[in-house]
Structures are given as structure tokens and as C-alpha cells.
């Protein structure tokens, strides 16, 4: 019944006219920022997530279905990040061009060197292990954003051959900007070289690996499982033993568990966006990374 009402709502809204050029819809706003840089003037880019929502848990709303309906290219993070809502949105859109396996569907994780792939047999979603295909938060590493820009350019070149060279040139310019910023970001993060931190969710491991910042423990006992009192006791012990100074978390998580640990240890709580748009200062991929490092206290 709910599904039917979504379809009727979509049918009731007039088929919106195409403005010329490709329509790209990305699941997350950080993918949207990279896609916009690569597409330049040749495509319109919209993102389902604005950077303010937890992308693990989103409701498939009629608004998202309308966005998908007019898409020529759908780009997802993949690795099951959007597993709860991607197919309800695509199914609802009845846009066969953007179904998985079609040229209009791009899984940005395809060529990523994936971290945290669990051993077969140990995966249990019932236990809240939300990352059965490995950790999907790879865009926190700027070199992964660099790689995704290339993959987006190649797919756009396939869908719109007339502008293939423009897409490749835009991707090269994005890659050059990343290359120029990496030494600066690395210098700013040098203070964390031997300074472990705590994070709420296991969403910062690619960032931590790139910039040499060890992560001692998460507030969640397992990805997707809310912090329990017993686990938080363990976190407090770890923070005290390793003299950890920072607890890092995304804006959508409750601050109560971090406050409990901070109250007992004096650690500082850092709330930072993990995607473009998650903070007014994070207007694109570069200012996002700038802001994360600034919030952490990188100099
Ligand atoms: Zn996650």
C-alpha cells in the first residue's frame, strides 16, 4: 500500500522537462561534489543525501524517486552503504537506464582498494554488522576521490561521447588539485602521527590510514550497533591507557556516549562532517577535507 502510494505520487507529478545535457544523480553529496567537478557545464548534478543525513539509514521518499526518474546517470558509493534505500528509489523511479548493470548506473567503489572486508562466515547483519562488503567510507581518503573522478569521467565519456574530452580534462584538473593539496593536508595532520583517537562509527579508517592517524577504538562496539555501557567502560579504559585526546564523530550521532567518555577522561569531542554540505563551510570536496582537519586541530 505504501509502495503504491509512492508510485501514485510520482505519477501525479508532471514529467519534468529535461534542460539539456545529462542529469546525474548521486546518492551522497561528496560523490555529487566530485561529479559536479567532472561534469562541468555538461551535466546537472543532484544528490539524494545533502550531507546532513546518515546515509546508512535513509527513507525512500517520493522526492528521491522523482530525482531518479530523470537521471541519465546514477552514482552510488556502493559496498552496501545505500543498501537500505537505493533499490526502493530506483524501482520506484521505473527508470530502467539507471538499474545496476546498466551504463547509467555507476558503482564508485569498483576500483577502490577496499579496507575491512570481513572473512566469509563471520558476517551477521542480525548482529548489526553493517559493512558486509568491507568499509564503504572510502571517500574520506582524497586519493580515493581522485580515483573516483577518473571513473566518473570515463562513464560520462561513454554516455556522452561528444563531450568526452571535456570530462577527461575536468577530471584531470580535479586530480591535479588533489595532488596539490595532499602535501599541505599531510603536514597539517602530522601532529596526529603517534596520537590515537576514538571515533563513534568506523567511518574514518581510510582518512586515518592516509594521514597516519591511529584509531584506537570506536564508541560503537560493532559498526551499526549502538554504544553499550560495558563497551563504553572499555573505551574509557583505552582512552586513559593511551592518553587519547580526541573523540571524532559525525553530526548525526548522539553526543551522549562521547560526553560520558569525555566526562571521565577529559578527551575533547570533535564533531566534523563526513560529506560535502554536512556543514555550511564544507561547500565542496576540498573545503570538506580542510574543515575535517581544522576541526581535529591540525595546523
Ligand atoms: Zn558505516
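Q: What amino acid sequence fits the structure above?
A:
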Amino acid at each position: 500500500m505504501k509502495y503504491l502510494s509512492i508510485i501514485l505520487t510520482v505519477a501525479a507529478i508532471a514529467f519534468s522537462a529535461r534542460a539539456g545535457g545529462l542529469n546525474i544523480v548521486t546518492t551522497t553529496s561528496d560523490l555529487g561534489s566530485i561529479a559536479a567537478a567532472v561534469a562541468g557545464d555538461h551535466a546537472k548534478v543532484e544528490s539524494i543525501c545533502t550531507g546532513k543525513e546518515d546515509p546508512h539509514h535513509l527513507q525512500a521518499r517520493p522526492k528521491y524517486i522523482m530525482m531518479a526518474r530523470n537521471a541519465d546517470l546514477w552514482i552510488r558509493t556502493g559496498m552496501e552503504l545505500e543498501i537500505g534505500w537505493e533499490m526502493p528509489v530506483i524501482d520506484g523511479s521505473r527508470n530502467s537506464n539507471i538499474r545496476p548493470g546498466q551504463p547509467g548506473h555507476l558503482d564508485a567503489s569498483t576500483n577502490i582498494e577496499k579496507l575491512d572486508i570481513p572473512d566469509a562466515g563471520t558476517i551477521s547483519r542480525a548482529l548489526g554488522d553493517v559493512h558486509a562488503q568491507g568499509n564503504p567510507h572510502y571517500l574520506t581518503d582524497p586519493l580515493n576521490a581522485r580515483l573516483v573522478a577518473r571513473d566518473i569521467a570515463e562513464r560520462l565519456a561513454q554516455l556522452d561521447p561528444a563531450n568526452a574530452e571535456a570530462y577527461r580534462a575536468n577530471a584531470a584538473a580535479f586530480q591535479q588539485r588533489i595532488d596539490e593539496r595532499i602535501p599541505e593536508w599531510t603536514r597539517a595532520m602530522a601532529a596526529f602521527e603517534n596520537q590515537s583517537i576514538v571515533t563513534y562509527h568506523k567511518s574514518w579508517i581510510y582518512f586515518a590510514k592516509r594521514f597516519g592517524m591511529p584509531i584506537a577504538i570506536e564508541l560503537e562496539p560493532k559498526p551499526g550497533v549502538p554504544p553499550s555501557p560495558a563497551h563504553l567502560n572499555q573505551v574509557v579504559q583505552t582512552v586513559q591507557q593511551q592518553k587519547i585526546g580526541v573523540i571524532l564523530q559525525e553530526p548525526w550521532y548522539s553526543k551522549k556516549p562521547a560526553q560520558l567518555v569525555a566526562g571521565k577522561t577529559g578527551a575533547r569531542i570533535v564533531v566534523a562532517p563526513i560529506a560535502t554540505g554536512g556543514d555550511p563551510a564544507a561547500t565542496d570536496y576540498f573545503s570538506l577535507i580542510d574543515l575535517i582537519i581544522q576541526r581535529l586541530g591540525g595546523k
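Q: And what stands out in the fold?
A: Residues 56, 130-131, 137, 201, 203, 223 surround zinc ion (CB under 6 Å).
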